[in-house]
Amino acid sequence: MHYDTLIIGAGLSGLAAGIRLAYYEQNVCVLERHTTIGGLNSFYRLRGRNHDVGLHAVTNYAPPGTKRGPLSKLLRQLRLSWDDFALCEQNGSAVAFPGVRLRFSNDFQLLQSEIEQAFPAQRENFSRLHQFILEFNELDLSQKAVSARETVAGFITDPLLCDMIFCPLMFYGSARADDMDLNQFVVMYKSIFLEGFGRPERGVRPIMKALVRQYKSLGGELKLRAGVSEIVIENGKAIGVRLDDGTELTADRILSSAGAVETASLCGQQVSAELASHQPGVVTFNEMIDVLDIDPQDLGHTETIIFFNQTEQFHYCQPEEPCDLRSGIICSPNNFQYGNRLEEGMIRITALANHNFWLSLDDEAYVREKQAWAERIREAALPYLPDYRPHIVDTDTFTPKTIRRFTGHVNGCVYGAPEKRLDGTTDIANLYLCGTDQGFLGIIGSMLSGITMANNHCMGI
Amino acid sequence: MSPAEIRQVIIDILEKIAPDEDLSSLNDEVAFREQMELDSMDFLDIVMELRKLYRIQIPEEDYHHLVTMKSTVDYLTPRLKDA
Question: Strand pairing of A431-433 and A345-353?
Fold first, then answer.
């Protein structure tokens, strides 16, 4: 079977790319090894409950009808409506460090006034940083990686404020340890602090389902349980793929969301030296999801997301311990403005994890350690929450091992490789990257990644 | 197609690309970009929609003709006269 474009991976980026190509009447097929769609943002059912794999909140919130910004651009490009995602705004979130707490919401002025109060001496500096970010063109795909830490330190002279600004942006999108590319920093700053958080009442499901519905209605083909074992290359050009079951498919071009190193390893003997030289990421997480018999709001917990750090300096890197208990993210999916209440309470707590530890355990030790560390992660977060433990009715946990198993990402890294490939090209003709290793992150970012790479490389113009 | 029909085709495409825009007061002599939020992705869509509808290829060096409604219609009129 011959296709115009084959897409590896039925996550947000692959499906968004598929919609663009199917809309313009390409013969396109999305290949997914797993039994279901979603990739790093999938969903599952466990003991009678629906869970999201990764979703805390959708960043880049914009009210329906907004004409500018990433969310509006995305909906236009995919010919979807605001109702398809039905995002509800957050209640409000916070960055909590020892002795200082900065609240922020979808109204940027809250963060601004919190910073002015807590760091009066940095008022002018922050305002200059903000102006610099507004003028920065993060969509320029030709730019080189520059250290965001160094750039921000050129504006903000209080290291505590620097750390507090970086903390949520790193947690929600940095593949680099202890630093970010300036471009990623600007993307995350705008998407979190300027635009803000939203969530569909039913989590990531309606978003994924809207994508698949649109893709299929346009004639796109989706193959599940269809893992790609090899990208077939002839004379330096990608010409097709071989599937796990031996089936061969040919295509004019291939768009891979598998990751840079992961895609290189699919190129077999013809391995792309340049692509293979990319280092896989080392930043990843454990997350525990507690289901409660009470709405967290009834315990007095109304904040949507709390990014906390308990030490003087914020460390964003692979911990020596199995999980880093010094910092974390607390998310309550209940705390968005849905207009009504969710059926059950839920608290998700995330901590940096050491992938070497989690990937090396045998099955028995894995189950034991997973449970033990879930309890430690919860305890580390309790200073920021009412003690909800008597209300827990179920707990699920994921680790880097879970992520690797279901997404194939080396080291089980959620944000991919530290070095991004912004223009999506590889040194193999007709083979392109989209998704985490192209470099637009988050729910909206990953869809824009698929759209942009489809537009730039796959339209056959 | 007549220029008036081509104009309607462009309006239909713009409605698809930018459903949140009010096109009723569009000034044909003024750049689209000055009246609506359109970026390079949207202009690519105008080109692609025309290709999908009428199999017309617009080379990249001709994209600058698609600045205003008038310049777009002028550019397309000879190319779509038999469509």
Answer: unpaired
